Amino acid sequence: MGIALSTTLRTSFADAVTRTREALAQEGFGVLTEIDMKATLKAKLDEDMEDYVILGACNPPLAHRAVNADRQIGLLLPCNVVVRADRTDDGSVIVEAMNPQLLVEVTGEPALREIADEVTTKMQAAIDSLHATT
Q1: Virtual CA dihedral for 44, 46, 49, 50, nearest 10 degrees?
Q2: Which DSSP state fits 3?
Q3: Which terminus of the chain has a smaller tally of CB atoms within 10 A, N or C?
Q4: Using 50, 70 and 90 to split pLDDT, how confident is the model at 104?
Q5: What is the DSSP string of 11-42?
Q6: The CATH number of the domain where 105 resides is what?
Q7: 91: three-class secondary structure by DSSP
Q8: Which DSSP state fits 111?
Q9: Can you give the pLDDT at residue 133?
Q10: pLDDT digits (tens, 9 = 90+) for 9-41
Q11: What is the distance of C-alpha 114 from the center of its chain?
């Protein structure tokens, strides 16, 4: 099992972030947090890096079910979605979402399997929909 569900887009970074937010919303995910790694590392360490944003996505009904199945699952929530410039290909942006199956793998909690399957379906649909508007 891979760590991520991912795709590569030929678009600007700003457009990829906007489209990713919209695709997540279409699947019932809100973005609770946004971490601009480029700006943070520059401000804190004076280090330069490519455009790189981490979006903390949450689908409240599914998160509620997951927390009810395993209270410690909150340690792995929200689902991180990374939008980052491809360092090897100018003009390409990589969008990656944490593979929700990792929740079951890490916890060993069988009650999370059905929830992880639903999250995977929705997250994959969001990722796949990014190509519908390229």
Answers
A1: 80
A2: S
A3: N
A4: confident
A5: S-HHHHHHHHHHHHHHTT-EEEEEEEHHHHHH
A6: 3.30.310.70
A7: coil
A8: G
A9: 54
A10: 999 999 999 999 999 999 999 999 999 999 999
A11: 19
Q: Total domain count for the chain? A: 1
The pLDDT value given to residue 1: 65
Cis peptide bond N-terminal to 110, omega within 30: no
**Domain of 81, in residue numbers:** 4-133
The dihedral through the CA atoms of 59, 117, 13, 88 has a sign that is positive
Strand spans (E) along the chain: 4-10, 30-36, 52-58, 79-85, 92-98
pLDDT in tens, 55-81: 999 999 999 999 999 999 999 899 999
Six-digit token string for 99: 């593979």
As a residue count, the chain comes to 134
Half-sphere exposure of 108 (CA within 13 A, CB side): 0
